[in-house]
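Researcher: Sequence recovery benchmark, item below. Answer with residues only.
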């Protein structure tokens, strides 16, 4: 049985993280206890910690825990868990940010946490860092493109159809490019000029500088697009995609919402895509993701991971790491080991 462990808690609204000893977590029916060996700082975590962004669901009471994704080793099985064993190496996502009652048990900014066995994938010998580098942002991209826009599973698309990924430079964008390509589409992206070669290696046919004055005109000549997605989610990108949908109108997916004035014939598809698999209404997607697609992608190396930097210092380093992500000082992902 697990004994107490350490967690990086937010003690009160707007306060900095405090690392302290906490009571053990115990797996209930259908859950497992996992020793957490890697977390990647997502912009979502950084924004929630430093600006209170989107925190209403997760942080209705304090102390509170951030982090909804991690990788580690199964230490204990709750009743009724099948298909997992003590000692399995796994990557996982939790309800920490969508269910306030589960926040302290399932937040991944701690050393030992419980996870619903339905949102765990076995990773075999894949490094924990590689697993967390891919799972959360790839899941965001795939949920947006496949679950919400209906772009389909790998191998089911046609290269006669075009997909536009705006803001392909980040983790979500980079994985969106690779996923759209794997489905079979012709992929056109916007990114920084310095990123052109990498984007082409990831599968883009054309790479347009998103800062170019005529970016929308250039994209219009290359369209039309069957699916449109902004991986940066900023208002300029949303307006550009809405413009490309004219005059007939249509929909695009965005990683961010916001108060952006869009034409009435355009629907912006914005959801917490990264948390979609936590919801039972998406049970079919969840089962495909954790049992089929993600283990295959990780174990067969089907996706080129974004760059990462390992930040030393364990849980005590989370506050500064989150600040660095929040201030845009980091390219790629920052990864920490909560056991250090
Ligand atoms: N809705 C959801 O479920 C969900 C899930 C995950 C993430 N998100 C959100 O999605 C955004 C991206 O997340 P991420 O993990 O991919 O972040 P990331 O890896 O840190 O991506 C940052 C990169 O995006 C590019 N970028 C930044 N601003 C841009 C802009 N205005 N236009 C075009 N490209 C821009 C930059 O690359 P270059 O300098 O090379 O252009 C930057 O280095 C964040 O705001 C995050 O909160 C939402």
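Model:
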């Amino acid at each position: 049985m697990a004994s107490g462990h350490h967690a990086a808690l937010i003690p009160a609204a707007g306060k900095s993280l405090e690392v302290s000893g906490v009571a053990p977590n115990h797996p209930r029916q259908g859950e497992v206890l996992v020793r957490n060996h890697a977390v990647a700082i997502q912009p979502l975590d950084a924004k929630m910690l430093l600006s209170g962004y989107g925190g209403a669901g997760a942080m209705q009471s304090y102390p509170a825990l951030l982090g909804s994704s991690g990788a580690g080793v199964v230490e204990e099985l709750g009743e009724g868990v099948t298909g997992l064993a003590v000692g399995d190496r796994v990557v996982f996502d939790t309800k920490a940010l969508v269910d306030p009652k589960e926040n302290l048990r399932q937040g991944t900014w701690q050393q030992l946490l419980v996870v619903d066995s339905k949102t765990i994938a076995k990773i075999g010998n894949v490094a924990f860092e590689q697993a967390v580098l891919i799972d959360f942002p790839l899941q965001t991209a795939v949920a947006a493109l496949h679950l919400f826009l209906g772009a389909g599973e790998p191998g089911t698309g046609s290269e006669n159809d075009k997909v536009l990924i705006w803001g392909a430079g980040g983790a979500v964008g980079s994985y969106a490019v690779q996923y759209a390509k794997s489905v079979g589409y012709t992929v056109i992206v916007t990114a920084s000029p310095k990123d052109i070669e990498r984007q082409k290696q990831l599968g883009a046919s054309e790479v347009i500088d998103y800062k170019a004055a005529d970016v929308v005109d250039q994209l219009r000549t290359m369209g039309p697009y069957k699916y449109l997605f902004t991986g940066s989610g900023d208002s300029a990108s949303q307006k550009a995609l809405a413009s490309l949908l004219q005059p007939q109108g249509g929909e695009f997916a965005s990683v961010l919402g916001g108060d952006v004035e869009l034409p009435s014939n355009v629907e912006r598809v914005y959801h917490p895509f990264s948390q979609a698999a936590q919801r039972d209404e998406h049970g079919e997607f969840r089962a495909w993701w954790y049992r089929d697609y993600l283990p295959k992608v990780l174990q067969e190396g089907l996706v080129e991971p974004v760059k990462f930097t390992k930040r030393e210092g364990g849980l005590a380093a989370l506050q500064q790491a989150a600040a660095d992500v929040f201030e845009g000082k980091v390219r790629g992902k920052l990864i920490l080991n909560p056991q250090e």
